[in-house]
């Protein structure tokens, strides 16, 4: 089962800047997950981004940032694990290293998940 672990920012949390200890722990955590085949991809996202919308065949493209957004996804990790519980446990380990913040875990579905 694939899950997307996202870190979000709603402007209310001011995380501490990473120190050498945190960077070393996070590097070891990422290396462990990569070597085990659990971590498929990870990265940070640009603030704002570009929104694309289609209505009645008309396409509208709008560059961010979007002031109406209450929170934005600022980082992610795509993992492949046996269960949601395992995804939650890995996310807990991430936040123990990263410190204050918030995130969202969502299962990723693909063509292999379509019955038939």
From TrEMBL:
Name of one Pfam family that matches: YCII
Region (Disordered): 1-20
Domain of life: Bacteria
Coiled-coil spans in chain: none
Domain called YCII-related: residue spans: 1-93
Transmembrane stretches, start-end: none
Family stated for the protein in its record: Belongs to the YciI family.
Name of this chain's protein: YCII-related domain-containing protein
Highest classification ranks of the organism: Bacteria, Bacillati, Actinomycetota, Actinomycetes, Streptosporangiales
């Amino acid at each position: 089962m694939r899950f997307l672990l996202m870190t979000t920012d709603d402007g209310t949390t001011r995380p501490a800047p990473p120190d050498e200890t945190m960077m070393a722990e996070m590097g070891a955590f990422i290396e462990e997950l990569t070597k085990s085949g659990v971590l498929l991809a990870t990265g940070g996202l640009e603030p704002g981004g570009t929104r694309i919308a289609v209505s009645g065949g008309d396409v509208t493209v709008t560059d961010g940032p979007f002031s109406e957004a209450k929170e934005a996804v600022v980082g992610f990790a795509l993992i492949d694990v046996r269960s949601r519980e395992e995804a939650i446990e890995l996310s807990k380990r991430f936040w123990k290293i990263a410190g204050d913040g918030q995130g969202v875990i969502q299962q990723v579905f693909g063509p292999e998940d379509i019955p038939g």
